[in-house]
Design a protein that fits this description.
Layout (H helix, E strand, L loop, with lengths): L9 E5 L3 H13 L3 E5 L2 H8 L6 E5 L7 H11 L4 E6 L4 H9 L4 E4 L4 H25 L16 H13 L6 E4 L6 H10 L8 E5 L8 H6 L16 H4 L4 E5 L6 H13 L1 E2 L8 E2 L3 E6 L3 H6 L5 H7 L2 E4 L10 H13 L3 H4 L5 H9 L5 H15 L12 H4 L3 H4 L4 H5 L15 H15 L4 H8 L3 H18 L1
Parallel strand pairs: 1-2, 1-3, 3-4, 4-5, 6-11, 6-12, 7-8, 8-11
Antiparallel strand pairs: 9-10
Length: about 475
């Protein structure tokens, strides 16, 4: 059975026996690996200067130089390459020497292809573990639990449905949304629902990468590839092998890197700086941006062909002001995260008055701003009930249009709006209806426009208004 793409290794095989060379040329590709065969150590050293390998199988005794000599040089130019020594003259001493110099394992001739396959599988497992450790170092959060994409508004329902459709595939995804809407959280949710969930998830903020080092960070480099490259460096495309690479702020990549990204999406190949030969990496790419790529294309700042290749699936995240009905649940979730407490312990800490204020805020910073507000409020309230006074000043300042409601007489002029008859203790339903009625007034009772601004369907708006009117009649 062929090796899965993300298990594929680049193997250097060095042996002076012609029959064994031919055997490896046939058998290793059949197992799903890429192989470069060299007849002697001198040729192997030349090849090692031009390409990078995951594994090297070295004959211990060769005419020009020994496998130990090649091993020593290999560890100097490519320390991450795992070496396997092979000889027909087994001895404890040579085995110990090879292991001391960094060999991964030691096998004797004649060896079966099944033995080599088993060793290559172990090498793959070690490399996978190393990649996961490197991936962990790139994570933005200190600890990752299962991502929770909160929201059941119509706009978010559409996002949830699309995620459920595309997550099991390997198709590229392009996520659009304002800053702070949760684009990385969507990417993580796709990853967690994908078949790659047990492999690395590597998030990259393209805007934070140094322009002079971005190619090296993404694709890697060989020792000596440029000034300061004092060792081999594995790029993030290689670290994410078998998993998912999330490129945030895609629009910040220069066109040279865009070309290399396009080449990877078309061929699955990457090439380290300083390498002459490309190699395969099995990576799903998810990208996100808050920029208008169509305008960037018109300004010759973004490649049109790359956009076509990336947007197999598009997800557009709505800003928080367009899904206000999600604010209470989202705020409680973020409060629990800030407090590092279970949701049940904090869900009643937000007073209805605080939620009312949050309904009225425009949230230019979206979910990120809400998260900061909840952290601020939890600290200021000393872990107690959160009132409007505990919210940041920028959130407490309500828009002038909301502080000057239209006369009651105007409300009576429209049969769908009745005077508010809320009791002294407001419920979440009361607060929601206050917000709906204010929005309806602002839009001069245009219900389709109001439903769109609220992020709900027109049918849902009518249902809420009808329910509220019935409650007012009953109360009156």
């Amino acid at each position: 059975m062929a090796t899965p793409p993300h298990n594929r290794l680049r193997v250097l095989f060095v042996d002076d026996e012609a029959s064994l060379q031919e055997f490896m040329r046939l058998e290793l590709p059949r197992l799903g690996h890429d192989v470069t065969v060299c007849p002697n150590g001198k040729t192997a050293l030349q090849v090692m200067q031009k390409a990078t390998f995951d594994a090297a199988i070295l004959d211990l005794r060769m005419p020009d130089m020994t496998g130990i000599d090649v091993l020593e040089r290999l560890k100097q130019v490519s320390p991450d390459t795992e070496a396997v020594m092979m000889t027909g003259y087994a001895s404890k001493e040579t085995a110990i020497e090879a292991l001391r110099l960094g060999a991964f394992d030691y096998i004797t001739k004649p060896c079966k292809i099944a033995d080599i396959e088993a060793i290559l599988l172990r090498i793959h497992e070690r490399r996978k573990l190393k990649n996961k450790n490197r991936a962990l170092e790139t994570r933005v959060e200190n600890a990752e639990g299962k991502s929770l994409l909160i929201g059941d508004s119509p706009a978010m329902d559409a996002v949830h449905r699309l995620i459920g459709t595309i997550a099991p595939t390997d198709a590229p995804v392009l996520i659009f949304g304002e800053t702070g809407t949760g684009k990385e959280l969507v990417a993580r949710t796709i990853f967690q629902q994908s078949k790659r969930v047990d492999m690395p998830f590597v998030p990259v903020n393209c805007g934070s990468l140094s322009p002079t080092l971005v190619e090296s960070e993404l694709f890697g480099h060989r020792k000596g590839a440029f000034t300061g490259a004092d060792r081999d460096h594995k790029g993030l495309f290689e670290v994410a092998n078998g998993g998912t690479l999330f490129l945030d702020e895609l629009g910040e990549l220069n066109k040279n890197i865009q070309v290399k990204l396009l080449r990877f999406l078309e061929s699955g190949e990457i090439r380290r700086l300083g390498d002459t030969e490309p190699f395969h990496s099995d990576v799903r790419v998810i990208c996100a941006t808050n920029r208008e790529l169509a305008k960037m294309i018109a300004a010759d700042e973004f490649r049109e062909d790359l956009l076509y290749r990336l947007n197999t699936f598009e997800i557009t995240l709505p800003p928080l002001r367009e899904r206000r009905q999600d604010i209470p649940d989202l705020a409680r979730h973020l409060l629990a995260r800030s407090a590092k407490r279970p949701f049940e312990q904090v869900k009643d800490l937000l007073t209805s008055e605080a939620i009312e204020v949050m309904f009225d805020h425009e949230w230019p910073g979206n979910v990120r701003e809400l998260a900061n507000a909840m952290e601020y409020a939890f600290i200021v309230s000393a872990g107690g009930l959160i009132t409007p006074a505990h919210l940041p000043q920028t959130v407490r300042l309500r828009k002038a249009r909301l502080s000057a409601p239209e006369p009651v007489a105007q409300m009576h002029s429209n049969p769908s709006i009745l005077p508010m008859n809320f009791g002294s203790t407001k419920t979440l339903w009361d607060i929601e209806m206050e917000h709906i009625l204010r929005t309806l007034e602002k839009n001069h009772h245009n219900k389709p426009l109001t439903a769109k601004e609220l992020g709900i369907s027109l049918k849902t708006l009518y249902n809420k208004l009808n329910r509220w009117e019935e409650e007012q009649r009953t109360a009156g």
